[in-house]
Amino acid sequence: MKLLSVLEATTSHFTKHGLPSPRLQAELLIAHALSLPRLGLYLQFERELTAPELEILRPLVRRRAAREPIQHITGTTSFSGLTLRCRSAALVPRPETELLVEHAARILAHQPAGLVLDVGTGTGAIPLALARRQPQHRYLGLDISEEALLLAQENCAHPASAPPEGTKVDWKRSDLLHGQTEVAVLLTANLPYLTPEEIASAEPEVRHDPILALDGGSDGLDLFRRLLPQATLICPTLLCECSPHQTANLSALAQQFGYPHTRIHSDLTSRPRFVEARRDPDPCLDPHFA
C-alpha cells in the first residue's frame, strides 16, 4: 500500500472519530512510525509501505483514534524551541504557556542574577525554556509528583531540552512552597486550574493527563490560595497562568495576599490568561510594567 493511500485512509479514519486537524494528526503519526520528518512524507508519496511498517503504524492509529494525546504516543512535544519528552506522568505543555515563558524572560532580563522558582513544574518545560533565554539565573522546579520530577530530570539531561552549560537547573519534590526559604527573583506557576465540571466536559485528550495536574477545586483557584501566602514571604514577583475567566479573581487574590500591583496579559487568542503580580512595580527593573 502506497504512503499516500495510507495517509488518506488514516485521515478519513481520524475524521470519522472526530479528531481535530485529522490530516495533520495523520501526517505526524505516520512520520513518527516511519522515523521521517513530517514534510519528508511529501517526497515519498509513491513509496510502498512494507508489512512490518504497517504493523508498527496500526496500533498507533488505534490509540490516536481512541483520543490518546499524540504527544503520549510519539513520546515528545515541541515547546518554546525545545523538544520535550512526554508521557502520562505530567501535563502535556500547552502552546499558550510559551507566552508565559516570553513574559518571564522579559521580567528576568531586568533582574540581577538569582533564583527562579517554578511551582508545579511537570515536564520542566518552563524552567528549561527560561534557562535557554536567561542563562544567568538559577532555576528550581518544584512538584508534588515524583513521576513528574523524574520526567523533568530526563528532559534536563536530554540534549534537545537541556540547559546551557553552566546554567544550574534543579528539581525538588515539594507541596507548593512548603519548606522553601531562599528568596527568589521570580516565581512562575502553571498550577492545576480546572474545575470538576470543566474536567468532565474537556476534550477526551485532556483526561489522559494526570488528575493531579488538572483539578484546581471548585472554582479552579484552590492551589493559588495556598501558594500566595507562601510566596509573599520569599518572592517579590509572580507570573501565573490560569483560565481566562479566572484572571480577574486571581489578580484580586494576589492583591489580597500582598501583591498590590498586578497586570493581566492575554494569550495568542487575545483572551486574558496570565497574571503578573508584584509587591513593588519598580519601573527601573521593568519599564513596561504599568
Automatic annotation (TrEMBL):
What region holds the Release factor glutamine methyltransferase N-terminal domain? Answer: 6-75
A Pfam cross-reference name: PrmC_N
Per its record, what are the GO molecular function terms?
protein methyltransferase activity
InterPro entries, sorted: HemK-like, Methyltransf_25, N5-glutamine_MTase, PrmC_N, SAM-dependent_MTases_sf
Q: Which domain of life is it from?
A: Bacteria
Q: Which GO terms describe its biological process?
A: methylation
Please indicate if the UniProt record lists Methyltransferase as a keyword. yes
Where the record annotates domain Methyltransferase, the positions are: 116-202
Alphabetically ordered keywords of this record: Methyltransferase, S-adenosyl-L-methionine, Transferase
Q: What is this protein called?
A: Peptide chain release factor N(5)-glutamine methyltransferase
Q: Which organism is it from?
A: Verrucomicrobia subdivision 6 bacterium BACL9 MAG-120924-bin69
User: What phylogenetic lineage does the species belong to?
Assistant: Bacteria, Pseudomonadati, Verrucomicrobiota, Verrucomicrobiia, Verrucomicrobiales
